[in-house]
């Protein structure tokens, strides 16, 4: 199928703002709220156990050791050991559950994006580079892995730890607590500034990664390698890739260093806080302030040190979340793509399909700004009949063929199969009704059998052989070293153009559609190969409604009707002989073909 005019797809602007985006992220975790509740309980229990340790230490220093109470000392020491064991066990369990939940969310995102793209019209893919799509699924979702697998749990765990620790610090000495927390608002402000900076850099970095992915996909495919080497452009392609990679290096370094010095200052200040606490307590005692016991002071510093780790982690988590918002935004852009071709709420299902196809006042244009590609098409192809569509390049032939299987939707009039508008049919009926054999054959990097079974997964070996015989390709397949288990290679490059085309025909025969669209299926083949493929097409077309988009007129002479398209309109309609007698556009095309035929 010919792609529509080349344009660059741009995502819709995000008008919901950051709060809406955060709500959408939280919605992703809703199906797993039961498991997250268990994680919350484990986090709370772990935090309480951890906070208990400094209180046990205070009793050891202030009571058990000074009073020589060996039994109490042993009990308190055992409590500290038990606290460490329980905290570790709770940590392992919460990591297991949170990682599982995070990976399930990643799976849901990947599946949702892939499913959304599967429902997009052909127009989207003609405007979007394949590498860009792959980058969204691989790099963007992969970049969110740390956020969805550990950040949520880290946020809850560290918040709980910070709150529990502050409460414990207040219980020990509220005055020292005020001294410890005086700079906390400044730290929060700094971390937010760092998060905003990293979010902007992350957005640019992911776009650059998408550019590189697109470059790799295009230039390192089999076709890209062949083109680069035959044109002598391998070195320039490598140089271009190096330039793109250099830009990514700069962005990676900037992303890594963004706010690093500011966060380092926070770490230094918080690490120095114990010394400040000892200094403040000593000055207070020297100048007649309230006395603080040694056990209380040590326990408080222990809590303050315990506060340091989750507080810094919490600030870092906030920065990481800010960076991840850029990734979520790119994913949500794809999830919010409007779907042009949808199934009706109550679609029509046909158990038996005869195959009559009608074009009733059909108009099609790619967008509101462009003129019509097809205009006022009225044609009928009876069940089992054949229609050939010919015309000069740009007349709208391939677009005409795209309308029956709903690769595009008409913008005026309607296309019907057995009297039912194709827009009213359910997707299953339409897929069973219409088969397409295009000029460019696509084969997966899999075995011949797997490629054929893509049309019918439950097909038996005998059915494969029957379809291949009808397509004139069975003997060639069996002559291969591995027969039907032979891997066809990337995009089928182990096979010639004619062999790939016959494999595509065998695949369509296996599908057995009542309506067949042949889009210039032999135009790229030499005359000898075309003859072999044409025999396979004749076998495929028998007793089917066939619409042939033709470049070589020699393949359409026997069609029941021949429609000549010119500037999107049916300029002539009739049989081969009738159109020759009119001495019009068709006769001119035939004469042109006759002049080109001797030169191949």
TrEMBL record:
Keyword Nucleotidyltransferase attributed: no
PROSITE patterns assigned: ABC_TM1F, ABC_TRANSPORTER_1, ABC_TRANSPORTER_2
Localization annotation: Cell inner membrane
TM segment ranges: 36-58, 70-97, 162-190, 264-287
Gene3D superfamilies, sorted: ABC transporter type 1, transmembrane domain, P-loop containing nucleotide triphosphate hydrolases
Domain ABC transporter per the UniProt entry, residue ranges: 357-592
UniProt GO cellular component terms: plasma membrane
Domain ABC transmembrane type-1, first and last residues per copy: 37-323
Membrane topology type: Multi-pass membrane protein
Keywords associated with the record: ATP-binding, Cell inner membrane, Cell membrane, Membrane, Nucleotide-binding, Transmembrane, Transmembrane helix, Transport
Biological process (GO), any one: oligopeptide export from mitochondrion
GO terms for MF: ABC-type oligopeptide transporter activity; ATP binding; ATP hydrolysis activity
Superkingdom to which the source organism belongs: Bacteria
Family to which the UniProt record says this protein belongs: Belongs to the ABC transporter superfamily. Siderophore-Fe(3+) uptake transporter (SIUT) (TC 3.A.1.21) family.
Protein's UniProt name: ABC transporter ATP-binding protein
Species: Streptomyces seoulensis
